[in-house]
Write a structure and sequence with these properties.
The protein is an all-alpha fold and about 100 residues long. The protein contains four helices and no strands.
Length: about 100
C-alpha cells in the first residue's frame, strides 16, 4: 500500500507546472492573456470571440483554432503556450465545460 501511495505522490509531483488534474483545462489563463495580447491581437481583436462573430462552438474547436493560428502566423509558440491561450480564451469568453 505504501508503494502505491508513493508512486501516486511521485507522479503528481512530476506534473508540469500549470497542469491541472481531474479533467480540468491545462494552462495558465494569466500567461495566456499576456500571450494573446502579444500574438493574437496582431490579427484581430476580441470581437471574434463574441456573438455574432463567434464561430467556435466547442472547447475542441477552440484548441484546434488556437493551434492553427499558431501555425499560420508563424508565432512558433510551444504547445504549453497554446494551452495557456486556450485557457485564457475559455475563461474570459467562451466558458465551455471542461
Amino acid at each position: 500500500m505504501m508503494k502505491i501511495a508513493r508512486t501516486l505522490l511521485t507522479g503528481i509531483l512530476l506534473l508540469p507546472a500549470g497542469t491541472l488534474v481531474a479533467g480540468e483545462l491545462p494552462g495558465s489563463a494569466e500567461n495566456g492573456q499576456k500571450l494573446h495580447e502579444e500574438h493574437c491581437t496582431r490579427c484581430h481583436g476580441t470581437e471574434v470571440y463574441l456573438p455574432p462573430m463567434r464561430k467556435i462552438e466547442s472547447l475542441e474547436l477552440l484548441k484546434q483554432r488556437a493551434t492553427g493560428c499558431n501555425s499560420m502566423t508563424g508565432a512558433n509558440l510551444f504547445p504549453e503556450d497554446v494551452d495557456d491561450i486556450v485557457h485564457y480564451l475559455n475563461t474570459a469568453f467562451y466558458k465551455f465545460e471542461q
